[in-house]
Amino acid sequence: MAAEISNNITAEIRNEFGKGAARRARRAGLIPAVVYGVGEPQHINLPGHATTLLLRKKGTQAVVILDIDGTETYAQTKAVQVDPIRRVIEHIDFVVVDAAVGKDAIAAAEAAVAAAEEAAVAEVAAEVVAEAEAVVVDAEAAQA
Predict the structure, then answer these.
(1) Which residues have C-beta within 8 Å of that of residue 94, sequence separation ≥ 6?
(2) Under 8 Å between Cβ of 66 and 75
(3) Host domain of residue 55
(4) Contact 96, 78 (CB under 8 A)
(5) What are phi and psi of 62, to 5 degrees?
(6) What is the chain's mean pLDDT, rounded?
(7) What is the CATH number of the domain that holds 64?
(8) What pTM was computed for the model?
(9) pLDDT at 72
(10) Tens-digit pLDDT profile for residues 67-120
(11) Residue 104 falls inside a structural domain
């Protein structure tokens, strides 16, 4: 089974703006992002690999816990811009959600994933048992 992916992401505040700054960030393995919600939008950079893994595993509408300069912020992805050729994330827009709502959403998503994995394992186990029974019946028919 694969390692569990955390919903926590450490972000750094972005002080440079514009196309050139975004390209420099992407070259450094970061993903530019904006957090909308209370007050002015916060421009941040996210670690590219960890963020990509999180969004692939949890979905593009995931609730994440952003650690921005030591402050924990619950945010849901609103828009994810992906390069159409290279299939890499170019930019993410987040919307701040209430901490209680965020915790509930994370718990519900984890429960849904666990239930889906359990159902998939049960389905595969049933298929294996059915194939084993078919082999036994064929073997008994061959001996008779």
Answers:
(1) 33, 34, 35, 36, 37, 64, 66, 75, 76, 77, 78
(2) yes
(3) 8-97
(4) no
(5) -70, 150
(6) 78
(7) 2.40.240.10
(8) 0.63
(9) 87
(10) 888 888 888 888 888 889 988 888 889 988 876 555 555 555 555 555 666 666
(11) no
